[in-house]
Task: structure prediction
Amino acid sequence: MLAFAPVIDGDLLPEAPVTVLREGRGLPVPLLIGTNKDEASLFKFMKSPLIPITDDRIAQMFADMATDNPTLELPSAQQVRTAYQHARSRAVGLGIARDIGFRMPTAWIAEGHSAVADVWLYRFDHAAPFLRLIGLGATHATELPYLWGNLSSGSKDPTFRLGGMRVAEEISHRMQQRWTAFAHGQAPDADDAPAWQPYATATRDADEAETASARVTLVIDRRDTVVPDLDGALRAAWGDQVLAFH
Result:
């Protein structure tokens, strides 16, 4: 299971929100959306059942999805694992959990909603040295202190015990510039940083240049980078069909 997923009861909530947005049926308003590079690592540290990260629980998750969605053609385990063939064996489960729980729903939403409104897609990759050392990396919610400019909670906060505050302040400043510009209806750009283009799929008859610049993601790190089709391997492995949970 995935905790905190919407409960599709057929009455109050007749269908999965991700499905509505994937099919371009959401309200046509601009959207800024993204995930973190290491979303699932936090749940491993918690030793919690909030998200499946072991082989047996991932297998059970797919079995439950098949039961809940009998008409859904699920990707095979072999197909999914092609996206993680270069990952260390212990990291495969974390990658699958991260992507089924966070990244793929975000990518599906960006794909569909970009047909009706501007979408800006990001991935937050930065982690302070201490968080990298203990294996959390850019885990779930670690982008929020950067966004709000609240990088430390006090003298007992270990986040920057091994340094990194100056870089964090620079990242925070850029994020606040981008998010504030977006809130004012402007392009979410920042000083001395690459322009962030809206997410858009290539047209059917796209030339090589258009294809190479499609599906742009802003990768937020020490230096921001704009990467076309960052999730190409994931889309190929997971497919374009929304995998929603009941």
About this structure: The chain has a mean pLDDT of 90. The radius of gyration is 19 Å. Strands lie at 31-36, 119-124, 216-220, 225-228. DSSP finds ten helices and four strands in the chain.
